[in-house]
Amino acid sequence: MEEMPRDHRPAVSVRILLAGDRGTISGGLALLLGLEPDFTVVAEVERGSDAVIAARDRYADVAVLDAVLADGEDALDTTVRLLAEMPDCRVLILAGSARPGYPERALAAGAAGLLVKDGPLDDLVHAVRRSLTGEKVIDPALAPPPPSPPAGTARAPRGRRARRTGRAGKAPAPGPAGTPPPAPDPAEGV
């Protein structure tokens, strides 16, 4: 029987950094994420400057940042600095509420996603995995509203169907005066 190489690892573990004040990013979150068989929480920090250092020193694959860190630093500034040092690290930001323009600014800063701070753990777990595949993840509760149609553009009411047309997309020709147009022939295969 052959020996396994000494550097063989049976599973690859995603290395996660948590950054935020203890009230938001608690040891409980680290414990829950650590229960995932392929996740390892490598650091928990409170300040943005510590997040950059810990991500670099601990080779974090994903950094989960509170939108406002304990030192008052905005996660967007930390994201920019962190990605300057660790461009392959994915950054997910946890926000308490939707602020106008924040999702766009987070993505522009290089974040891989924006999630609700108190959202379900499963959402965070899926976001971590999706971010590693290059996807951008925005929680629907924080996403900007869809653009409204331009002024003067009328939308057809829902439930109303388009009038059935005859061959080649043309409306059936009207019959003799006062009679309805002929019905399409089912044998023609409309």
Summarize the structure.
26% of the residues lie in helices and 16% in strands.
If you had to describe this structure to a student in words, what would you say it looks like?
- With about 190 residues, the chain is an alpha/beta fold.
- It is about 25% helix and about 15% strand.
- The chain contains 5 helices and 6 strands, in the order βαβαβαβαβαβ.
- It has a 6-stranded parallel β-sheet with strand order 2-1-3-4-5-6, sandwiched between helices.
- α2 (about 50-55) packs parallel to α3 (about 75-85).
- It is globular, with a radius of gyration of 27 Å.
- The termini are far apart.
- Residues about 5-10 and about 160-165 have low confidence and may be disordered.
Structural class: alpha/beta
Distance between the termini: 69 Å
Anisotropy-based shape: globular
- Count of runs of 4 or more consecutive helical residues: 5
Quaternary status: single chain
Low-confidence stretches: 4-10, 162-167
| Main beta-sheet annotation | 6 strands, parallel
On the 0-100 scale, what is the average pLDDT? 80
Q: β content, as a range?
A: 15-25%
Q: How do the helices and strands follow one another from N- to C-terminus?
A: EHEHEHEHEHE
C-alpha Rg (nearest Å): 27 Å
Helix content: 25-40%
Total beta-strand segments: 6
Q: Order of strands side by side in the largest beta sheet? A: 2-1-3-4-5-6
